[in-house]
Every structure is written in structure tokens, then in C-alpha cells.
Write a structure and sequence with these properties.
The protein is α/β, with parallel strands linked by helices. Helix content is 36%, strand content 17%. The two termini are 33 Å apart.
């Protein structure tokens, strides 16, 4: 694609302009169009900027799979900052170590954990419906370049302390735009199943939202075969990414879910 934007937020905004009424997100019975998702992310981005978030910062997201988590990722990128999707099953000391190492000043969460708010860290509550349901039309996203950091994930730390891995915009765009391994079209629906703190989620989130497709958020916390099968059908999912072990389990035990 020639002359395409070099950052995630501008690529998403170009999709929102191209197909404002197409469904960007589906979660349970909730549907959000590209325009609605863009306007909500604008509003949250303005709020984050008012809290002092600026280009180059890292903002943590400590949320389950939800509409709010997707709005948060987009809003953070629109500020020119990078998102850090936390794994809330990790013990508090480990999460605290990661937050400190990433110099995180702002956390978006719906579960207040005082231990994570030391050093004057600010909390943005996903339970604040006004922040996540309000729309803002006029917002100029930060013009990140391809080398700027888009997100940070931490290694398991099995050999010592967890280490932060910084992924730039360029790598995400290369993964999902004009690739030679998958052709994602606006008519597709991609299942968002991987934990946000696992790299596979990058393909799910941005493979859908940067190609004008629908991102269908799995509503369970763990694999429930009946729910999995039902939501694939209800959301008309036709693209998904599964680990080899999970794929074998699905294929051997409930292959009809993939019919």
C-alpha cells in the first residue's frame, strides 16, 4: 500500500473515515461501528492528555477482554504513547516491578489495587461510563513514526527478572497489512481470544481494525467449548488464531465449532 500512514492510529482513522458505519467491535450484544470506536477513543485520549500523558510515555492497561480495553489501546496510541497490557493473574510484586521498570504513571483499570498506585501513579477507572461512552469529533492524533514504540510486553521472567520488550508501530503494520500469509478483508470477522498480554493478540486486534474487518471479542475468561462454538457462530467469525495445542484440542473434541 503506497503512501500509507506509518502509525497504527492513523491507519485505524483512515479505516474509520472509509467505512464509518461498518462494525469494528462486537462483544456479547454490543456492536460498535468504526466511527463510534474512533470518537470514543478520541474522548479518552483527550482525558489521558489532561492527566499528563504525552508522546513516548507508557500507559498500563489492567482490564479483562472488553470494549473498554480496545478503546484504551487506541486512545493511548492517539496520544503518541505506548500501551502495556498487564496480565492480572500475575502476583502484585511482579506487576509492580514491571510498572516501575516501564516508568508507568497512568493505569487504566476497573479493579483498584492500591499496591499498584504508589509513587503518585494515576488511575483511570474503566467503570467510569462517561469516559468510555462519550464522543469527541475534533482530535488530532499524534503523528508517531514507524520506529516509535506502540506497545510493551514483559517476558515471563523465568530466568530472572521480567524484561520489557518494546514493539514499534512498524512491526505491527508489517504483521497485518499487505502480508503474504493472510488476506484480511473488510468482510471478515476475527475472533479476539488471546490474552492481551500475549503477542498473538496483536494479530487479532490490529489485523481486524487496520483492515476494516470486525473484531469479535470472546466473552469468556477461559475456553468454554459451548460458548466458543456459539460466539463463533453468532459473530460469524471466519478468521482466528489458535496455538497449536489449542487447535488440536478443538479439532479433536469439538471440530464442529469450526465448520
Amino acid at each position: 500500500m503506497h503512501n500509507q500512514p506509518s502509525n497504527i492510529q492513523k491507519l485505524f482513522e483512515s479505516q474509520a473515515k472509509l467505512r464509518p458505519n461498518s462494525i469494528a467491535l462486537s462483544y456479547k450484544e454490543i456492536l460498535l461501528s468504526y466511527e463510534e470506536l474512533n470518537l470514543r477513543a478520541n474522548y479518552l485520549a483527550s482525558h489521558l492528555i489532561s492527566l499528563g500523558v504525552k508522546a513516548g510515555d507508557i500507559v498500563a492497561i489492567n482490564l479483562p477482554r472488553s470494549i473498554e480495553s480496545v478503546i484504551s489501546m487506541l486512545a493511548i496510541l492517539k496520544c503518541g504513547a505506548a500501551y502495556f497490557p498487564m496480565d492480572n493473574v500475575n502476583p502484585v510484586p511482579r506487576n509492580l516491578l514491571c510498572l516501575n521498570n516501564a516508568y508507568v504513571d497512568v493505569i487504566i483499570t476497573n479493579s483498584l489495587c492500591d499496591d499498584l498506585l504508589i509513587k503518585g501513579r494515576k488511575l483511570v477507572s474503566a467503570d467510569n461510563a462517561h469516559l468510555f461512552n462519550s464522543a469527541q469529533a475534533n482530535f488530532e492524533s499524534y503523528p508517531s513514526n514507524g520506529e516509535d514504540k506502540a506497545y510493551v510486553m514483559f517476558t515471563s521472567g523465568s530466568t530472572g527478572n521480567p524484561k520489557g520488550v518494546v514493539v514499534p508501530h512498524r512491526a505491527v503494520i508489517r504483521l497485518v497489512i499487505d502480508t503474504n500469509y493472510i488476506d484480511i478483508r473488510p468482510t471478515d470477522a476475527i475472533l479476539q481470544f488471546a490474552p492481551a498480554s500475549f503477542d498473538a493478540s496483536t494479530l487479532e486486534f490490529w489485523g481486524a481494525l487496520l483492515n476494516g474487518a470486525k473484531l469479535a471479542l470472546y466473552s469468556g475468561t477461559v475456553l468454554d467449548p459451548n460458548l466458543f462454538k456459539r460466539e463463533i457462530k453468532e459473530h460469524q467469525v471466519n478468521v482466528m488464531w489458535l496455538t497449536a495445542s489449542l487447535f488440536h484440542m478443538v479439532a479433536e473434541n469439538f471440530i464442529d465449532a469450526l465448520h
